[in-house]
Write a structure and sequence with these properties.
Elements lengths: L3 H7 L4 E6 L12 E7 L2 E7 L6 E6 L4 E2 L1 H5 L7 E4 L3 E7 H9 L3 H15 L14 H6 L5 E5 L4 E3 L7 E7 L2 E5 L4 E5 L4 E2 L12 E5 L3 E7 H8 L4 H22 L2
Antiparallel strand pairs: 1-7, 2-5, 2-7, 3-4, 3-6, 8-15, 9-14, 10-13, 10-15, 11-12, 11-14
Helix pairs in contact: 1-7, 3-7, 4-7
Length: about 260
C-alpha cells in the first residue's frame, strides 16, 4: 500500500514546511489548516470528560495528522498542543484538500464520510458511527468480494494481529475495543472497520468482536489501493490521513 510519506512527496508543491523548536508556540487550531507531522513529537490534550474530570492525552508523531478532519468538515480543532521536541511540519490549505475530497470517487468519498462520522460523532455518549458504503462500490465489485458469516461473540481480530483487509457489515453488529479493551464503537449494517489495512499498517491497533450473528464482506487491501489509485494524490493523501486520525482518536478515547 502506498504510504503517507510517498503521497506527501507527490503533493509537495501544495504545502509549506514549518520548523519548530521544542516548546515553541504554533497555533494548530486554525480553520482550514491541515498539518502533517514530518519529524518530532506533539503532545495533544483533549477536553475533560465531564464525568471523570480527565482529559485524553496522546503523543502525535511522524505522519500523524492534525486538523485534517476539521478542515474537510469545515470545523476548527479544539485541542491543546505542546511541542515536545524540535519539529518539522507540512502545512496544507485545508480548503484545497476539502475541494479534492468533495470531487472524489465513490470509494474515497465513502471512506471520508465514514471517517468524519467516527471522528466527530463517536465523541458523543452512546453514539454510533453511522455510514453506509454506497451501493455503486459494493455492486460493482460484488463478484470479487468475499462474504463470511460469524457467530455472535466471535473475535474477528485482536489488537496486534496482522492488518491486511477491511470489513463491510452486511448483517449484524460488531463491537470495536481499544488495545486496553475499552469500548470504542458499536457498528451495524452498512458500516465498515479494519480501515488500518488501507494505510499498510502491519498490525491492528484495536480489536473487533461480533455482538450478534453477523455477515461481513471482506475488502482486501489490494482492491482498496486499486480504487485509490484512480484518485488525485491529494485526495488519496486526505483519505489516508482521515483514516489515521480515526485510529488516533480511537487511542485517545481508549486512554481516558
Amino acid at each position: 500500500m502506498t504510504s503517507i510519506n510517498e503521497l506527501l512527496s507527490a503533493v509537495e508543491g501544495s504545502s509549506k514546511v514549518v520548523t519548530l523548536a521544542a516548546n515553541e508556540y504554533f497555533d494548530f487550531n486554525v480553520k482550514d489548516q491541515a498539518v502533517v507531522i514530518e519529524q518530532g513529537e506533539l503532545l495533544v490534550v483533549g477536553q475533560k470528560d465531564p464525568k471523570t474530570g480527565r482529559a485524553g492525552r496522546q503523543l502525535f508523531k511522524e505522519a500523524d495528522p492534525v486538523g485534517v478532519a476539521e478542515s474537510i468538515a469545515s470545523r476548527v480543532s479544539d485541542f491543546d498542543f505542546s511541542v515536545n521536541t524540535d519539529m518539522r511540519l507540512r502545512v496544507f490549505d485545508g480548503a484545497l484538500m476539502r475541494s479534492h475530497v468533495n470531487k472524489a470517487g465513490v470509494f474515497a468519498r465513502t471512506i471520508a464520510r465514514y471517517s468524519l462520522k467516527r471522528i466527530f460523532e463517536d465523541a458523543k455518549k452512546d453514539a454510533k458511527a453511522s455510514i453506509v458504503f454506497e451501493d455503486e462500490f459494493i455492486y460493482k465489485n460484488y463478484e470479487d468480494l468475499r462474504s463470511v458469516e460469524f457467530a455472535a461473540e466471535t473475535q474477528i481480530f485482536k489488537a496486534g494481529a496482522e492488518s491486511d483487509k477491511m470489513y463491510f457489515i452486511e448483517k449484524g453488529q460488531v463491537r470495536i475495543n481499544s488495545e486496553q479493551n475499552k469500548h470504542i464503537a458499536t457498528l451495524g449494517v452498512g458500516e465498515c472497520f479494519g480501515e488500518g489495512a488501507l494505510m499498510g499498517a502491519a498490525t491492528r491497533n484495536a480489536s473487533a468482536v461480533t455482538e450478534t450473528d453477523a455477515e461481513l464482506v471482506i475488502i482486501e487491501s489490494e482492491m482498496a489501493e486499486q480504487e485509490l489509485k484512480n484518485e488525485h494524490p491529494m485526495t488519496w493523501l486526505a483519505t489516508l490521513l482521515l483514516l489515521k486520525q480515526v485510529g488516533l482518536m480511537n487511542q485517545f478515547r481508549g486512554k481516558r
